[in-house]
Each structure stands twice: as structure tokens, then as C-alpha cells.
Write a structure and sequence with these properties.
The protein is mainly alpha-helical. 66% of the residues lie in helices and 4% in strands. The protein has one domain: Multidrug-efflux Transporter Regulator, Chain: A, Domain 2 (Orthogonal Bundle). The longest helix is centred in the C-terminal third of the chain and has 27 residues.
């Protein structure tokens, strides 16, 4: 089983990440500027994408195919993150009973 750190540690260069998700590097830069994701950076400032970032990029692609614009995608991603947090809190509350 992969650790959470392993999923969030940036290991892929932008060229590799773009190829893995089937989009252009310019799109990855745009998504970052629009606040859709924030890849890690090396000490020299080079972007490094994690497995979690790749999952987000794949989700962005799905939402684009569904016809959402980047502003709508940002809202969906934010709401999905809130929903995951609330689900974790609910599960924790249930285990404390």
C-alpha cells in the first residue's frame, strides 16, 4: 500500500506529467495560474507533480469533457475537497461513539 506521503511527493517533471495525463505543458501552467492545483517545487523552482496532482489533472480533463469552464472546475474541485474532509470527520465521529 502506498503511503500518503508517496502520493503527495512531487516526482514528475512537467513534461512527464503532461504526457501521463495526455495534455500539453501549457495547460498545466494555466491550471496552476487559475488555482486548480499547486505542484511541488524543487529548490531551484522546477515544478514537480505528484500522483495526487496527476489524479487532479485527470479530474480536470473529465470536467472539461463534461463542458465545464476553468472557473466551474475550480468550484467543483473545492467542493469535492470539502466533501472529502466532511466525510473523514463524520467517519471519525462515528468511531468515537
Amino acid at each position: 500500500m502506498e503511503s500518503k506521503r508517496g502520493r503527495t511527493t512531487g516526482v514528475y517533471a512537467i513534461s512527464v506529467a503532461a504526457e501521463l495525463v495526455g495534455t500539453g505543458q501549457q495547460n498545466l501552467r494555466l491550471y496552476e495560474r487559475k488555482g486548480l492545483l499547486e505542484p511541488g517545487r524543487t529548490g531551484g523552482g522546477t515544478r514537480r507533480y505528484s500522483e495526487q496532482d496527476l489524479d487532479t489533472l485527470r479530474r480536470i480533463s473529465e470536467l472539461l469533457e463534461d463542458g465545464l469552464n476553468l472557473a466551474g472546475i475550480r468550484m467543483v474541485l473545492e467542493l469535492e475537497a470539502v466533501n472529502r474532509r466532511l466525510e473523514r470527520e463524520l467517519a471519525a465521529a462515528r468511531t468515537r461513539r
